[in-house]
Amino acid sequence: MKDALIHLPDGYSIRLMLERDYAEVAAICAAVYPTETPYTRDELAAHHRVFPEGQFIVMHDASGAVAGTHFTLILRMLDFHLDDSWDVLTAHGTFTDHDPLGHTLYGADLMVHPAHQHHGIGRALTVAIRGLVSEKGLWRATGGSRMPGYHLVAGEITPDEYIAKVQRAELTDPVLTAHLHDGWHAVTAIEGYLPNDAESAGWAAVIQWINPACPPPEGFEIGRVPRRTKQ
Ligand SMILES: CC(C)(COP(=O)(O)OP(=O)(O)OC[C@H]1O[C@@H](n2cnc3c(N)ncnc32)[C@H](O)[C@@H]1OP(=O)(O)O)[C@@H](O)C(=O)NCCC(=O)NCCS
How far apart are CA 5 and CA 12, in angstroms? Predict the structure, then answer.
């Protein structure tokens, strides 16, 4: 977590999630994902039980409030499809599919409380999970980025064209732009990642960050990971 400290603004600190954070985490979830069911205590306890070192919290020191979270688990991605949903990749939000022998750290959720956004907290939490990738000698981190600006142009351009325009900075997306600025590479658009995400018109961008210090697992090519749906 030491690299994350460089990016944290003054007045914030970073640590691993504790039981006392659960209620505040659920409240942040309700605030940033109004159409989703917030995490339950049981789900957060399960995340903590299966992979405590992958559950990061940023605190606002003065108020003692939780300002942001990044939740991760390790997956063997060849067990999955490129376009599997969040529900499938997280074993219905429980993280019980965490596989310590996998090569990929999956960033299941990154959220910053609206009152603390645009302070660099998302960046610090992203750097924190990359530190974990390096510590564990994993090949890469991956995630599914929401693209909540897509519904504004969904009738005009395809999801992949939208991603390309955001990559070229011809369009700005409130989430995908943040991920790209934070050094993620967008691989492709997938449908149904978060089926209730109407702002993203049901689409998401698969994003990944390759650990330059770790060679890819033998025989693995992202292009060979099958899709659940035909393109
Ligand atoms: C996406 C999110 C995590 C970003 O967190 P944040 O703490 O506000 O982001 P940061 O302040 O660390 O900004 C990181 C970079 O993204 C950029 N960025 C952040 N929000 C942005 C926005 N709305 N539009 C464009 N760029 C944005 C910042 O400018 C910064 O890049 P820069 O340093 O090159 O200028 C936050 O907006 C959030 O929690 N959103 C709701 C939940 C969500 O959708 N999470 C993503 C799930 S895939």
Answer: 9
Take atom 20 of ligand 1 and give the residue whose Cα is closest: 178
Confirm whether 52 is domain-assigned. Answer: yes
Measured by CA distance, the residue closest to atom 19 of ligand 1 is 178
Please work out whether the CB of residue 32 comes within 6 Å of at least one atom of ligand 1.
Answer: yes
Q: Pick the atom of ligand 1 nearest to 174's CA.
A: 23
pLDDT at 24: 97
Give the span between the Cα atoms of 102 and 226, in whole angstroms.
17
Report residues of the chain scoring pLDDT below 70. Answer: 220-224, 230-231
Q: List the beta strands (DSSP E) in the chain.
A: 12-16, 55-60, 65-75, 104-112, 140-146, 185-191, 203-210
For the chain, give the number of residues.
Answer: 231
Domain coverage including residue 114: 1-138
Q: Does residue 120's CB lie within 6 angstroms of at least one atom of ligand 1?
A: yes
Instruction: Give the predicted TM-score (pTM) of the model.
Output: 0.95
Query: What is the Cα–Cα distance from 178 to 154, expressed in whole angstroms?
Result: 20
Please count the structural domains in the chain: 2
**Domain containing 71 — which CATH number?**
3.40.630.30
